[in-house]
Recover the amino acids of this structure.
């Protein structure tokens, strides 16, 4: 059984719309990203996300329905890829998106889906909406208006005309009309007089592939008590003039001018539909327009396929008739999928293959005022590290948030490399200086006002340094500080009430007064014993002396000793903490007895104690008490020597410790620091080899990886020049930075300016090998060039490139280790090299399709050197390594090559060949088995056998999936278990039955799981993670999709399979979705051949995690429905562990 959950949600924007959704007279922007709707408000700083909703279908259409009579705001029409539609509105009372009309199913298996994009149009009079989702079919939906309501009221009784019947402005029942035009490129309602019939212009392609324009009028007869509604589109005008073959868009011109514009590749035409006159002018340079948006009655914004924006304006004569038009170039932006004009020159540029942008149009140009990151389409990706291995040894629980995934994103001019990490980001503001061996740091307030800090105390192994910050950020290091000791290491420093500063060092405790600049109180332990740990609040200071003596001091009363107790040599104390609020207790950790104890400050008696594990195996080091969750008890964090963190809930009423939890962060003990979050709550920053931020969200404690290299120590530093910042010490320097308060997706971008078709990562060279395809427009002619490029991992910049030949394109890139000799000890030495597969763009009349396999190495100057070149009789679609052999997927075969090295020359010799049914597009190698993605014929497993006794090597098909599947990617995810994706967004898990009774059983790949992901997967990257007993699933692969999603794929551990399936079914029954779309239909396998009723042995992690945000009563009902003796807290813990995976 399989499990899938998103790491990064779809970011591609194909549809967007402006409407007054939240408030009357206040515009908002709704953006569709695959199956997610995001609602943005326009602020002075740009777009601000107000809310979002997941839809159980992929959004294909959006439309604004002006506020019906029963609603103060506009309604949103949503059409989906399942050929359904529904309407939404905003519920002001609950501040949630509400379903106004549940989904209406228009699916018709006897009709052929439109080859063009689905379209939704509303006639200018607001009387009808039409949907174009099938070829030759138009669905007409009347919009209820007063005259219809009046007629309907005359035939209905008062009991029937209830509040549930459609109100004025809402949608009526759909009716189907047929037309002759099958391939409609564009359509538009023309502006007509108020009482005239709606007129629809169709830009279509006829049987001879000629582009034509036709106008039809809509005739509609409403339903009566005895007959159903009827709609037809009657042909009115056929324009005999053949149009530009590249004509792509119709733009209706509003009244009083009327008519329409036709956008072509070489010209733009204006047609006056009243007089049938045409005004045509050629473009200065040929281009292909992809989107348009109306600015006013005479001006439109246009976007072309190369990311250029233009202003189109109609030129009028003295009689206010259209005389001509002119077009002005504004500048380059992302290649637009949709344009939305928001007013005052502000325009949203939604993009599928680049970042979406908010621009402000000025005089002849525009400026970008906001960028919404987009990593779609993900053509390829590589996993740099999983963040959980040191020398390949497993150290802690897997979290993809600690993995760095680098994607090949975008297309052509918008092509980029994107480094994606789902975690907590740290933005560096400045470097204070190079400093080594920093052991801790604290922020202090000496002379600043409010809550601002102005002094940073930094301690080292044998000294303490103090840095003073001015209001404008100037930094000065102080030679002396209030008479405090700077010649030794500091264990604790903090502000006390009444302008006092506390410092605890290994030898003494001092309190200084900021007004007098002098030390006012001093205390030292007797017998020259060392202080090993300390913790304080505004009233008390608790010290650990000599590792075994606990002392409590009164910081309000001249450091008087309140209590002191020697716990003995056999009860060493490793750490201590006191609550921030005055509470008469402290908490100490005892490593020798493997326990943590709550003690009274008055006499240091043990009030409560908790065992942390087996004595001699569990060693607590430091402790920290912090308020993490609003309205909940404080949480006690315990740092363990093995790199784990244990937590307890601390009950203030009786000082008890309950609800033990444990999580492994790394292999070394974490160090804790509290970071204020606001409202009396804190985040906890844990520094170890994998820094983590611990914070509260939705009533749960979240552990999230921090995307910071080498953060060794940290402290909150809210300086006036750097508000809300932190001070971060690494092994080399000290920085001022800003840390996120919770996990987000961190994206670093390297612009390439070309499609990054393939990417591979070399750990030894610390570089990426990438294959690019660049497209430029020169004098109206499109020029395509391809390169293999080397890019630096750390600086994320280009190092070198290799130009391919004319009409040659990169198809695949892999990295492998080549043996280069032996060292002095006789050990094999290897070096990373890149292997590149290419294909030629041959002329159509040339039957031979050609390609090359190239081998490159990186020299000491980080330059590319070509080692070998092998021509192949076919495009090289994919490459992989089988031991020291190269496996190449060519045009209609899979070939294994031997690598032959003679001195400095490298050659490839063909060893074995396997003929595929159609075309191999992806391969995955495990051991001597090759998994082959056969374009139309699903997946085959091919075994490589080395020749012996004079026989040649061979490739033999040992198993196959006997179904027609248009495969896009494959991956080997477990022993005899494979994952494949298809072009319609499905995921299929296949299993090879090696122990089958018959030969046919052994040759047939069985389907063990299948579901509709709803997004086409371009690349599957398997990962090797050990099975974890604390988590119900084992991660097996990452998936990169065309819409910019990155998914984690996992196999469910056997003991949890039945429970998770029942839990998914229960949650789906309780959790609502926009339009009340059913979950099972959304995730059920669906292609052109077959449609299932529900997902088969697949669990949707996104749905499972919605359990955490359900109301407690709903959670109880769901758990009761699941049965099996499960409890709500146990289910929460399981789901929280699943969520930590991504």
């Amino acid at each position: 059984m399989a499990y899938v959950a998103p790491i990064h949600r779809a970011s591609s924007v194909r549809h967007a719309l402006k409407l007054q959704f939240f408030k009357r007279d206040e515009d908002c922007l709704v953006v569709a990203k695959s199956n997610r709707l995001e609602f943005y408000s326009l602020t002075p700083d740009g777009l601000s996300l107000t809310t979002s909703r997941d839809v159980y279908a992929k959004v294909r259409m959006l439309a604004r329905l002006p506020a019906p009579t029963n609603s103060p705001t506009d309604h949103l029409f949503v059409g989906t890829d399942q050929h359904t539609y529904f309407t939404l509105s905003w519920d002001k009372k609950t501040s949630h998106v509400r379903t106004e009309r549940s989904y209406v199913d228009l699916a018709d298996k006897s009709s052929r889906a439109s080859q063009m994009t689905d379209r939704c149009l509303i006639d200018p009079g607001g009387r009808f909406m039409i949907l174009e989702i099938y070829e030759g079919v138009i669905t007409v939906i009347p919009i209820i208006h007063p005259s219809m309501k009046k007629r309907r009221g005359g035939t209905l009784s008062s009991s029937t005309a209830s509040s549930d019947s459609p109100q004025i402005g809402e949608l009526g029942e759909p009716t189907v009309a047929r037309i002759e035009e099958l391939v409609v490129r564009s359509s538009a309602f023309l502006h007509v007089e108020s009482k005239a019939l709606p007129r629809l212009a169709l830009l279509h392609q006829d049987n001879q592939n000629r582009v034509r324009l036709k106008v039809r009028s809509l005739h509609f007869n409403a339903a009566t008590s005895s007959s159903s509604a009827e709609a037809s589109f009657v042909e009115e005008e056929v324009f005999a003039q053949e149009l530009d073959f590249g004509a792509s868009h119709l733009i209706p011109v509003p009244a009083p001018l009327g008519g329409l514009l036709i956008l072509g590749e070489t010209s733009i035409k204006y047609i006056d539909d009243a007089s049938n006159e045409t005004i045509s002018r050629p473009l200065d340079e040929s281009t292909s327009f992809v989107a348009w948006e109306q600015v006013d009655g005479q001006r439109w914004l246009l976007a072309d396929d190369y990311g250029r924006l233009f202003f189109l304006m109609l030129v009028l004569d003295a009689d206010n008739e259209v005389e001509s038009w002119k077009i002005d170039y504004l500048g380059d932006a992302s290649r637009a999928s949709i344009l939305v004009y928001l007013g005052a020159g502000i325009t949203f540029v939604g993009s599928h293959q680049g970042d979406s942008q908010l621009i402000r149009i000025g005089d002849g140009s525009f400026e970008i005022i906001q960028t919404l990151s987009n990593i779609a389409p993900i053509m390829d990706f590589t996993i740099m590290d999983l963040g959980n291995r040191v020398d390949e040894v497993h150290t802690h629980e897997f979290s993809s948030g600690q993995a760095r995934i680098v994607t090949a994103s975008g297309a052509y001019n918008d092509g980029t490399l994107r480094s994606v990490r789902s975690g907590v980001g740290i933005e560096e503001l400045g470097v204070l200086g190079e400093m080594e061996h920093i052991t801790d740091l604290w922020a202090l307030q000496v002379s600043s006002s409010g809550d601002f800090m102005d002094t940073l105390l930094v301690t080292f192994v044998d000294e303490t340094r103090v840095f003073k910050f001015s209001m404008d950020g100037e930094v000065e290091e102080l030679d002396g500080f209030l008479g405090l000791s700077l010649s030794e290491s500091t264990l604790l420093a903090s502000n006390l009430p009444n302008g006092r500063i506390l410092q605890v060092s290994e030898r003494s405790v001092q309190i200084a007064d900021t007004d007098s600049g002098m030390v006012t109180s001093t205390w030292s332990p007797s017998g020259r014993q060392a202080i090993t740990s300390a913790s304080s609040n505004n009233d008390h200071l608790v010290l650990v002396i000599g590792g075994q003596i606990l002392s409590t001091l009164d910081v309000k009363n001249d450091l008087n000793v309140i209590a002191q107790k020697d716990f003995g040599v056999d009860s060493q104390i490793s750490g201590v903490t006191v609550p921030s609020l005055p509470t008469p207790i402290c908490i100490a950790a005892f490593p020798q007895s493997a326990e943590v104890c709550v003690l009274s400050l008055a006499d240091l008696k043990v009030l409560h104690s908790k065992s942390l594990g087996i004595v001699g195996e569990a060693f607590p080091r430091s402790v920290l008490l912090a308020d993490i969750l609003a309205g909940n008890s404080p949480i006690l964090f315990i740092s363990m020597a093995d790199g784990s963190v244990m937590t307890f809930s601390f009950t203030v009423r009786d000082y008890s410790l309950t609800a033990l939890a444990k999580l492994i962060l790394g292999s070394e003990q974490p160090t804790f620091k509290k970071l204020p979050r606001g409202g009396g709550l804190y985040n906890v920053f844990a520094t170890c080899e994998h820094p983590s931020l611990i914070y509260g969200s939705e009533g749960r404690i979240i552990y999230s990886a921090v995307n910071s290299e080498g953060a060794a120590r940290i402290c909150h530093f809210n300086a006036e020049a750097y508000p809300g910042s932190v001070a971060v010490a690494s092994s080399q320097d000290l920085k001022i930075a800003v840390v996120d308060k919770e996990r987000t997706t961190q994206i670093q971008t390297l612009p390439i300016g070309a499609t990054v078709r393939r990417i591979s990562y070399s750990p030894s060279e610390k570089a990426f090998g990438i294959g690019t395809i660049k497209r430029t427009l020169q004098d109206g002619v499109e020029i395509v060039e391809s390169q293999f490029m080397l890019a630096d991992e750390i600086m994320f910049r280009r190092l070198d490139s290799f130009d391919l030949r004319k009409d040659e394109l990169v198809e695949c890139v892999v990295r492998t280790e080549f043996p280069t000799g032996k060292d002095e000890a006789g050990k094999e030495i290897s070096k990373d090299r890149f292997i590149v597969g290419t294909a030629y763009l041959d002329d159509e009349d040339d039957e031979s399709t050609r390609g090359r396999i190239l081998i490159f190495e990186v020299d000491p100057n980080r330059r590319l050197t070509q080692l070998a070149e092998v021509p192949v009789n076919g495009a090289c679609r994919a490459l992989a390594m089988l031991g020291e052999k190269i496996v190449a997927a060519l045009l209609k075969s899979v070939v294994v090559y031997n690598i032959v090295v003679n001195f400095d020359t490298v050659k490839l010799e063909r060893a074995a060949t396997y003929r595929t049914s159609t075309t191999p597009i992806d391969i995955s190698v495990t051991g001597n088995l090759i998994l082959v993605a056969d374009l139309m014929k699903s997946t085959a497993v091919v075994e490589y056998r080395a020749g012996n006794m004079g026989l040649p090597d061979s490739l033999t098909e040992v198993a196959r999936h006997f179904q027609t599947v248009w495969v896009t990617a494959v991956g080997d995810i477990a022993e005899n278990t494979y994952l494949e994706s298809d072009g319609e967004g499905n995921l299929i898990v296949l299993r090879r039955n090696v122990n089958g009774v018959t030969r046919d059983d052994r040759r047939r790949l069985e389907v063990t799981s299948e579901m509709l992901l709803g997004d086409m997967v371009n690349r599957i990257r398997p990962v090797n993670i050990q099975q974890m007993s604390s988590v119900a699933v084992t991660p097996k692969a990452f998936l990169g999709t065309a819409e910019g999603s990155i998914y984690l794929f996992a196999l469910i551990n056997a003991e949890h399979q039945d429970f998770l399936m029942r839990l998914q079914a229960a949650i789906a029954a309780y959790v609502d979705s926009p339009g009340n779309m059913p979950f099972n239909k959304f995730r059920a396998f669906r292609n052109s051949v077959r449609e299932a009723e529900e997902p088969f042995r697949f669990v949707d992690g996104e749905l499972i995690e919605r359990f955490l945000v359900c109301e407690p009563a709903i959670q109880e009902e769901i758990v009761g429905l699941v049965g099996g003796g499960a409890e709500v807290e146990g289910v929460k813990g399981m789901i929280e562990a699943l969520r930590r995976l991504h």
